[in-house]
Amino acid sequence: MEHVDTLICARWILPIEPAGEVLERHCVAIRQGRIVALLPIDQAAERYSADRRIERPSHVLLPGLVNAHTHGAMTLLRGAVEAAAYAEWTQQLQRLEQRWMDAEYVRDGAELAIADMLTSGTTCFGDLHPFPEATAHAAAAAGMRACIGLPLLDRPGLWAGSTDEYFVKGLQLHDEYRDDPLITTALAPYAHWAVSDETLKRVQRTADELELPVIMHVNEHRESALSAGERSFDRLHRLGLLSPLLMAVHVVAVQDAELDLAAREGVSIAHCPQSNLKLGCGVSPASAFIARQANLAIGTAGAAGNNDMSLLDELRTAALLARGLQPSATLPITAHQWLRAATLNGARALGLGDVIGSIAPDKWADLCCIDLNRAHTSPVHDVAAQIVYAASRDQVSDVWVAGRALLTDHQLTRLDLDDILRRAERWRQRIHGE
Ligand SMILES: [Zn+2]
To answer: Alpha carbon of 206 to those of 195, 197, 202, 412: distances in Å?
Structure first.
C-alpha cells in the first residue's frame, strides 16, 4: 500500500480538466503538497494509507479559486469613498492613500484581504499595489499563493521616486522570491496611459527576458481607450506588449477589431464585472472574448470599489451579465466554462497554469470545498450550476494551499482574524481622526 499525507474524499469533484467532467464519490490523494492521484473512494482505500483522511460527504471539491486581479490593501478603504463619479472616486481614493499608506498599512490591508479571500474559496490572487513586499510577505506568512505585481510608473510615488527605482526595487523583490513555492511576481505598469513608450518597451524586454507576466489596466472606461490619439490595443501591439504574457485588466471599452487582435496574440483578460458596474465604468463584453477563444479570467479588483472579495459573487455577476447581454439565439456560456474562468484561466493569466488551476497529478494541491447541503443548493441536478448560480461564500468549508489546510470547517487555521479586524478598525479610527 502506498503512503500519502492526505486523502480528501468528497461527494463530487470538479477537476476542471477534462472540460465539464463531474466525478462522484472520488478522493484526491496528496503528498508533500502535490496531487498524487484522483480516484474513486473504494480504489483509494485499497491503494493508499494516509496520515489524514478527510470526508466531505455533501460537498463539492474543486481547484481553489484564482482571483486574477485585485489590490489587496485597498480593503482598508472599503466603503470609504462612495456615491462618486469614477474620476472623483479615483481622486478621493488617491488622496487617502497618499496620506495614510506605508508598509504597515499595506501589510494590515493585505492580511484583511487574504482573510476575506480564503474564507470565500480563493487560494491564489494577482495583486497590484505599492509596497508589494508587504503584500508578498503577508501572503507567504499566511501560506496563501499570490502573484505579486511589481508596480512600474513614470511618476514618483510613495514606494519609488523614479522609473529606474521602480524597476530596481521591483526586480529585487522578484529575485527575493525567485525560488519561493507560493509567491511569484509579475511586471505591473499600472495602466497603458500611465507609462511612456520607452517604459513600455522596457517592460516588454524585461518580461520576455524573465518570462514574467505583465499586469496592466487596459480600457477600464471609455476615456482610457485612447492615448495620444492612438487606440490602446494598437499602441500596445506596436510596442510588442500583446502576447500570452499580458493580462489586460477590465477591457470595458473595446472594439471588435481590438478583440480580434488581442485574442490572436494570446492576451488574457481579467474580467472584473462588479467593479465595472459599481464604479459606473460599463460592462466588458466577456462572451465576445470567450467566443474568440481568448483566455478569460475573473477578478474582484480592489475592495475600495467592489466592495467584497468573493470570487463566487463575482462569478455569478459575470455569468448573469453575459447571458443578459447575449443575443438569445447564441449558445450560453456554461457554468463549467465560468468555473474554468475562475480557476484554470486565472492561473494561466498569472503564469501558473502548469502548476495550479485544475485537479491533476503533479499540480499543487490548491483546493476549495463547498458544502451544498443547504436549502438553497438542494437538490443537486447540476453541481456546476449550483456553485455558479446559488452557492454563497458561507458554504466554503475548507481551503488548502499546497496541501496545507488554511480553512477547516469554516475556520481560518493560520490567521488570527480577531487581530486582523482590530488592526483594520484602528486604521479606520486613524483615518477618521478618532
Ligand atoms: Zn485594478
So the answer is: 15, 14, 6, 38
What pLDDT digit, counting tens, does each position of 391-423 carry?
A: 999 999 999 999 999 999 999 999 999 999 999
Report CA(71)–ligand 1 centroid distance (Å): 6
Residues of the chain with pLDDT under 70: 327, 329
Distance 250 CA to ligand 1 centre (A): 8
| CA 245 – ligand 1 centroid, Å | 17
Q: Ligand 1 centre from 408 Cα, in Å?
A: 30
Q: What is the pLDDT of residues 194-243, one digit of tens each?
A: 899 999 999 999 999 999 999 999 988 877 777 778 899 999 999 999 99
Distance 72 CA to ligand 1 centre (A): 10
List of residues 6+ apart from 320 with CB closer than 8 A: none
> For the chain, what percentages of helix, strand and coil (3-state, to nearest 5) are there?
40, 25, 35
